[in-house]
Amino acid sequence: MLIAYPEYLIHRKWMSRALELAQAAGEAGEVPVGAAIIDAAGNLLAEGENRKERDKDPTAHAEIVALRIAAQNLQNWHLNQCTLYVTLEPCPMCAGAIIHARVGLLVYGVDDTKTGAIRTVTNIPDSAASNHRLKVIGGVLESACRQQLQAWFATKRHKRN
Q1: Residue 145 marked as a ligand binder
Q2: What cofactor(s) does the depicted protein rely on (predicted)?
Q3: Segment (H or E) for 52
Q4: What is the pTM of this model?
Q5: Is 61 known to sit in a ligand binding site?
Q6: N or C: which end of the chain has fewer CB within 10 A?
Q7: Residue 82 annotated as lining a ligand binding site
């Protein structure tokens, strides 16, 4: 998908915010994934970062945390006028939640070659199981997102040895 330059700058701005959230998650001992949801007017509606370890909750992925907050803030679970930015391609659980929330646009940073459920391993948005046609842009600040994850995992492996 071709992106106009002003739109590209907006996507970079919000992905940068998601990277900051991912950094905070990593510093807290979580896999560094961050998410931000922007409303139709371009305002920040909700943020999330991975919280599985801190909350002892297997569903506390950055996307799920942000979706819950956005729905509460809007008092509506229909997020069809919103854009979700996330540093890592969503997993099957998150992809399902994004579809069910009717998110208008998903922008993600780096493909997840193990559990990516948007384009890489499987394609939930375009499957027969999807009742919502999700618009997707991948690869925004891809290098920075990849480097952040790789550095975190390298540090974690180094500490184990």
Answers
A1: no
A2: Zn(2+)
A3: helix 52-55
A4: 0.94
A5: yes
A6: C
A7: no
Q: Which pLDDT score is estimated for 50?
A: 98
**Are the beta carbons of 11 and 136 closer than 8 angstroms?**
no
One-letter amino acid at 112 equals D
Collapsed DSSP state (helix, strand, coil) of residue 43 = coil
Q: Is 63 a catalytic residue?
A: yes
Mapped onto helix, strand or coil, the DSSP state of residue 36 is: strand
Nearest to 118 by CA among 96, 87, 144: 96
Structure tokens at 117: 């459920």
Query: What are the structure tokens assigned to 116, written together?
Result: 């990516």
Of the candidates 47, 49, 63, 89, the residue annotated as catalytic is 63
Give pLDDT tens digits for 89-100.
999 999 999 999
End-to-end alpha carbon distance in the chain: 43
Which pLDDT value is given to residue 57?
Answer: 98
